[in-house]
Specification:
130 residues; six-stranded mixed beta sheet; 40% helix
Length: 130
């Protein structure tokens, strides 16, 4: 008798969100690395962001990415219910919410991702520029 391996659930939230390639990318990465997870997209009503997060947490979703127009609302929600990274505090916006603990950890990876992309793919160095 084999025991089923639990599948962690993640998603990307937005309005609109249909254009997001994140589910395809994340699910393929999980497949290639042997991770047991599903990653979906969820269209959230413009006036329903907090309720959507409450529902996801109640369902046991482990975390989510957040797209516009909800990044500032994600910051406010995390500030009320969890911890914020220094980057999230600085930006006062979040694109990553981790629900794996009893509280929330929120981060903003937009800036660091852009800088890394400019360096690696465009050969552009930002050091010393104002």
């Amino acid at each position: 008798m084999t025991t089923a391996i639990p599948v962690d659930q993640y998603c990307v939230l937005g309005h609109p969100v249909e254009h997001s390639l994140s589910p395809r990318i994340q699910n393929r990465f999980a497949e290639l690395t042997g991770q047991h997870l599903t990653y979906t997209r969820q269209l959230v009503p413009l006036d329903g962001f907090d309720a959507a997060l409450d529902a996801l947490r109640a369902q046991g979703v482990r975390g989510c990415n957040v797209t516009l127009p909800f990044k500032h609302q994600a910051y406010a929600y995390a500030r009320k219910h969890g911890q914020l990274s220094a980057r999230a505090e600085l930006a006062q916006a979040c694109n990553l919410l981790d629900f794996s603990a009893d509280s929330i950890f929120a981060d903003n990876t937009d800036g660091v991702g852009l800088v890394q992309d400019l360096r690696a793919n465009a050969g552009y160095e930002l050091a010393g520029r104002d």
